[in-house]
Amino acid sequence: MKMFYPFLAYRPFLWLLLAVNIGGTAYGYYWYEGQLKDTPPIFLAFVPDSPTASLFFVFVLIAFLLKKNWPLVEALAIVTLFKYGIWAVVMNLLVLVVTGDLGWTGWMLVASHFAMAVQGLLYAPFYRIKLWHLVAAAIWTLHNDVIDYVFFMMPRYEVLYLYTKEIGYFTFWLSIAAIFIAWYFCVRHGRREYTLQAG
After folding, report:
1. CA–CA separation, 68 and 170 (whole Å)
2. Model pTM above 0.90
3. Are 175 and 145 in contact (CB under 8 A)?
């Protein structure tokens, strides 16, 4: 596994990953276009969950290409990429269970969001996150849950409307899991750590 990390730091691969994430982020905001039109301005920053997570990672990659670390953005990225990546996979599979069909778009969302969660974790040894960065990311993430399930700004899956309470409960604990995972891989003493040398 140790031999794999120089490839992650390889500059052409970082550029490729940056291009993929910019494209995915743009598509994600487009996917939310209809909901954003109906969203009160005060909630706009908290509605497009997945594209905002990948946008955080776009800035992480830009920092890497500049041979820098932006730890607060790294903390926001790893927590939200894992949370919303896994969340979207579970929601789309739940749609499959409820309706019996998912379609190619749904499977594309499953694959792309699973990749989101994985990429955030793969780069964990390169992050330089301190506890206060993680605390700030945790506040953002849990606050977003309040916006989604108290003010009902969650992503629109009409066929899952009857399960909103259960989904909200699941989402809260997924947030806790994402925060713990970020602490385990990025903050705890004795974690694996590599220096980014994108040549």
Report:
1. 35
2. yes
3. yes
Cα 194 from Cα 124, distance rounded (Å): 9
Nearest-angstrom CA–CA distance, 22 and 51 = 9
Distance, in Å, from the CA atom of 49 to the CA atom of 32, rounded to the nearest integer, reads: 9
Residue carrying structure tokens 């899991």: 177
Phi/psi at 155 (5° precision): -55, 145
Q: What angle do CA 124, 194, 132 make, to 5 degrees?
A: 50
H or E, element range at 46:
none
What distance in Å separates the CA atoms of residue 121 and residue 79, rounded to the nearest whole number?
9
Q: Which stretches does DSSP call E strand in 40-178?
A: none
User: pLDDT truncated to tens, each residue of the chain (199 aa)?
Assistant: 667 788 899 999 999 999 999 999 999 999 999 999 999 999 999 999 999 999 999 999 999 999 999 999 999 999 999 999 999 999 999 999 999 999 999 999 999 999 999 999 999 999 999 999 999 999 999 999 999 999 999 998 889 999 999 999 999 999 999 999 999 999 998 898 888 765 5
Candidates 146, 147, 153; CA nearest to 38 is 153
- Would you call 127 helix, strand, or coil by DSSP? coil
